[in-house]
Design brief:
Oligomer: single chain
Structural class: alpha+beta
Number of helices: 11
Helix content: 40-55%
Shape: elongated
Distance between the termini: 46 Å
Radius of gyration: 34 Å
CATH class of one domain: Alpha Beta
CATH architecture of one domain: Super Roll
């Protein structure tokens, strides 16, 4: 981090090293280190005219949003788009930061700008839906607070009026014989001599007997079971109208993702194989929302795929770190490769050739398994 090379080629080599470390820190959820590393790469490129990279600002924007540095995240997203107005992820970062700042209309505008560049990107539709939902919720909460304030004013007025009335001496009414009656207005005396409300209806003994015989007022047994009806959009039975409902699915993902990936393998051309042994550090969001009878699948995951390579008697281990795995399986996955320190050099070269690349070896096998899991998730 403290190294400050002067030749441009040395700076560019250091930028690539810092970028790889930043991705590794992000996959380990070390956001503080990731922010510092992306900042180092940005400052190195800023020292070379014309070398600024939009993805660096986009990535730091995402990291800063995770650190709740929302204003700084928005500034990075804007800088990203200033460098490259066609960089789609910049609009996604900008929209998410604006939602966190409760600037819902601006967030929707940013998402729509992204859709103009990439109309098939479902992530922008999800952002727009969230912005509209949060905006409606905020309006509802403000209306509720306004109603509560009005109720408080009415209660205070009633209390004040009640105190004034209690301070006035009660008027005494005269009976027919001219004597004053100190009883309160609005009350009467029943046939058994009890005081009750003026509006109370006295029921005769004969009427009480008829009511009892008819069974009114007693619990009744339901002879027919209540039939459960499927709600619109396949939601809970209580939500027959198909209004907004959210089903959390991270438990499902934490069970199904390892089942889909563990055991995935690739046979090496010169003998030996490399296979997935575990899936760890699964984090993010997974949910199914139902609104107006329609289902939406929201997914944003990070996780690490651990693997083991065996060639003869040599064994090497490492992991592929995935970030920003979404329900839009058309998006490319962000993947970084890490190799365990005890792996021998001869296997490191094989890992470089058949694990690290996205187009050959183990990684395409894993990617297909992830896409299959995503397709099954979208059927929930």
């Amino acid at each position: 981090m403290s190294e400050e090379p002067t030749p441009d080629d040395a700076k560019l080599r250091l930028v690539e090293e810092v970028k790889n470390r930043a991705k590794g820190a992000f996959s380990q959820k070390d956001m503080v280190s990731a922010e510092l590393l992306y900042g180092k790469a940005i400052s190195l490129l800023d020292s070379m005219p014309g070398k600024s990279e939009a993805p660096l600002y986009s990535n730091r924007s995402m990291v800063r949003l995770n650190l709740s540095k929302v204003e700084e995240s928005l500034a990075d997203a804007k800088k990203c788009l200033a460098i490259d107005p066609k960089f789609v992820k910049g609009y996604h970062r900008k929209a998410n930061a604006l939602i966190r700042l409760n600037e819902w209309d601006d967030a929707i505008a940013a998402a729509n700008a992204g859709l103009e560049i990439e109309p098939t990107n479902k992530a922008f539709h999800e952002v727009i839906e969230k912005a509209n939902k949060d905006k409606d919720k905020d309006a509802e909460e403000k209306a509720h607070l306004k109603r509560d304030a009005q109720d408080v004013r009415v209660d205070l007025h009633n209390m004040s009026t009640s105190r004034q009335a209690n301070q006035q001496p009660a008027k005494k009414e005269k009976k027919e014989n001219g004597e004053e009656d100190s009883s309160m207005r609005g009350y009467k005396t029943t046939s058994d001599g009890k005081k009750t409300s003026f509006f109370h209806t006295e029921i005769s003994d004969e009427a009480k007997k008829m009511i009892a015989e008819a069974g009114f007022g007693k619990p009744q047994k339901l002879e027919t079971a209540v039939e459960d009806k499927e709600a619109k959009g396949g939601g809970a039975t209580w939500n027959q109208a198909g209004t907004y409902e959210e089903l959390l699915k991270m438990k499902y993902v934490k069970v199904e993702l390892p089942k889909a990936l563990i055991g995935a393998s690739f046979g090496l051309p010169r003998g030996g194989s490399v296979a997935v042994t575990d899936v760890v550090d699964i984090a993010g969001d997974a949910s199914v929302t139902i609104a107006r009878g329609k289902r939406k699948h929201l997914l944003d995951l990070t996780f690490a795929v651990e693997y083991e390579m065996k060639v003869g008697d040599d064994v090497g281990k490492g992991k592929l770190c995935y970030a920003e795995v979404t329900a839009n399986d058309d998006d490319g996955f962000e993947v970084t490769s890490e190799v365990n320190s005890e792996t021998v050099n001869s296997l490191r070269e094989v890992i470089e050739a058949f694990v690290k690349p996205g187009g050959v070896g183990l990684q395409p096998v894993v990617n297909e398994a992830i896409k299959k899991m995503i397709a099954e998730f979208k059927q929930l």
